Amino acid sequence: xxxxxxxMSLDNKTSYFNSTRSFEDYLIDDKIYRSILMHPAIQRLKGxxxxxxxxxxxxxxxxxxxYDHLLGVSYLAHLSSQKLSLPDEYRKVPILAAMLHDIGHTxxxxxxxxxxxENRHRYHEGLTTEYLRKIYLSMEGGSRQLLIQAxxxxxxxxxxxxxxxxxxxxxxxxxxxxxxxxxYSLFLxxxxxxxxxxxxxxxxGEAYFRFESLFLLDQFWICMTNLYSKFIxxxxxxSAEAMLTRALxxxxxxxxxxxxxxxxxxxxxEAWKMLLEDKxxxxxxxMIKGKKLFKSLSSIDRGFRNRIFSQYSSFRFDLTKRKEIxxxxxKEYLVSSVYVILHYSFILMFRKKHPFDCNxxxxxxxxxxxxPPLIDVLAxxxxxxxxxxxxxxxLPYHESSRQLEIDFGDKNAKA
Length: 415
Hints:
Blueprint: H1 10-28, H2 31-37, H3 40-43, H4 54-57, H5 66-83, H6 92-100, H7 113-120, H8 124-137, H9 141-154, H10 161-165, H11 173-185, H12 193-198, E1 200-203, E2 206-209, H13 214-232, H14 235-252, H15 259-264, H16 268-277, H17 279-289, E3 295-296, H18 297-311, H19 319-333, E4 341-352, E5 362-363, E6 366-367, H20 374-379, E7 381-395
Antiparallel strand pairs: 1-2, 3-7, 4-7, 5-6
Helix pairs in contact: 1-5, 5-6, 5-11, 6-9, 8-9, 11-13, 14-17, 16-17
């Protein structure tokens, strides 16, 4: 278990989440914040799970919502604005950006992203931009200008480089709250986000990070990489996502009567209900909720899996090619191709350009003990997201008998 040098008591950790929840009152007291917070697109986030399928297949302390996360990031944006002594006319911008940064999330959160990309070629950021434009076009005067600036901050094109550094990159306000929230839910240690914000200060218009607190960023980095590698990017979680993706395809994939647009506006409980109304998708959902997850082809026959992918290595979201692969595996294992799922996972890879060592006299080209600029510190941690960085096939399988544990439909149907 990771050792965190600062106090890691459960009471201290819980106090952070209590502070983020109480920040809602601060937002409601302000006319501009309140108008955004009460917008139906924001209120909808109360019904969207932050961790999606993870609380279903793993033991979790708490299942936060996207709205909880919104409050957390907004709280950190508020604290950062104070630490950076932002001008009054700009101080609302980062808070508004934090409030709106996840507005485009569909039901089931990140677990639905593969389905969205395959059917609409859109990630949730694109839907966020659409929502934002609709909202600020309905606003007037100074409020509209603030939202335009918030839009730029969310999309990485702000003319405020210091605040942009806190909204973009591997370590940003979004990840500070998100990793803390995920780690707490999964009973893992984490660095309290407010401790990191406390190490930021502004002097003569420049933002710095206190040298003696740099170890907190390294500890946060270890927490984040451990969380993703050991708890999120596991076959258990990815199998549930693959099964959910196929269920979404079966229910919403034909886009009849605007199904995709309808799906994007639902909350989780409404989406689950619609999935259960379709016989084929209902079977998959019941399997997920019963923790009867499909096996990866890599764990069944890695050689067969590698031979298949070597023949189809050049395609990504080509649905015709995907079906060819699924049919091939279905024939091999005598299972309906409906329940053979080729799934792309969106893997975040982490790297650090300037490893921190307390014993080094040279850090970011600054003398030992001198506080480095905030932008340089945050830029030293980088993250690469590659669409389809991990490709796997999941299918129902029983290792000992090579037979299905239950009836998965017509096993002899033409795949």
